[in-house]
Amino acid sequence: MTITRRGVLASSAAFALAAGGTNAAAQPFFRSHRLPIGLQLYSVGAELRRDLVGTLKAVAEIGYKTVETAGYAGQSPRALRAAFDQFGLACTSAHVPTRGNGPEPTLSGDLARLAADMHVLGARQVVAPSFLVPEGRSLRSELTLDDWRATAAFLNRTGAALKRDGLELGYHNHNPEFAPLAGGTALDLLLKETDPTLVHFEMDAGWVVAGGHDPAALLEAHRGRFTQMHVKDVAKGVEPNYAFHVRTTSVGEGVIDWPRLLRAAYAEGVREFFVEHEPPFERPVLEMLALSYRNLAAMPA
Contact at 8 Å (CB) between 162 and 169? Predict the structure, then answer.
């Protein structure tokens, strides 16, 4: 066999690529992709109202870098932004209710005011935390095909309005979206009837599992539609249901195969990840969040 300089260079390059690939694979997921681990502040809502500064300080000391709001914790947007800045936390996303009677803006209310608040907070993503509940009915009401279509139309209208103000609208699932509907599920309908240029989806992995579905397979079936994720693990023994029932545990301690799911999420376009726990908590929530962070920071790519 004749050994040429070109062959040596090609072999060296191939070895370097292989070695680089090995090193990249050995890196933890979030470090290898240069992504922050975020926190949905719903998890510490009660703590924020009791002690905003102390709670955000604890969140930052755990290692979280980005946050997603679930209301303003009794603060003005400007005061909340100042507290985030104090601890180096970037607010990139906000859950905003579809309707409501409180002092904070909703997706059915003054969208110009909402947009102004989001620009103060620094959030570009605005997420509907659940479906549109028909007037006079509760969140746990059984919804019809027309009800779900009304939610899809609402999301398209609202997404178009927010887009004009430089914001993006997302939709966050629970598990009622996985109840059978018209030969598929309500989530199938929402994905089909919303405009991808106006509405993206934030997958709550824990609620997907609680609804009896595989989050990785769901991502692969709807490539590009999910751009955010709630990193929520499900405790062992939770039976699939469509009725807002789930028990969560620290990420990496439950039933979800996180290395597989994180790889699928990144491959299908998810770029924002927010840890979230649901009450009642099995131990102090900041302890759970610290364990979730440590497990995720070490999660293989």
Answer: yes
Element (H, E) at 118: helix 111-121
Matching residue, tokens 């579809």:
98
The candidate with the shortest Cα–Cα distance to 155, out of 173, 140, 180, is 173
What tokens were used for 217?
């397979």
How far apart are the C-alpha atoms of 122 and 94, rounded to whole Å? 10
d(CA 213, CA 199): 22
Q: What are the DSSP E strand ranges found in 41-178?
A: 66-70, 90-95, 125-128, 168-172
- 31-297 maps to CATH 1.20.210.10: no
- 65: nearest Cα among 233, 250, 275, 278: 275
pLDDT digits (tens, 9 = 90+) for 27-59: 999 999 999 999 999 999 999 999 999 999 999
Tokens for 106, please give them: 């909703």
Segment among 43-47, 99-103, 138-142, 199-203 with least mean pLDDT? 138-142
- As a whole number, the mean pLDDT across the chain is 92
Distance of alpha carbon 67 from alpha carbon 44, whole angstroms:
11
Q: Let me know: does 244 contact 140? Beta carbons within 8 Å.
A: yes
| Amino acid letter, residue 285 | V
Taking the complete model, does pTM exceed 0.85, yes or no? yes
Assigned token pair, 190:
């929402």
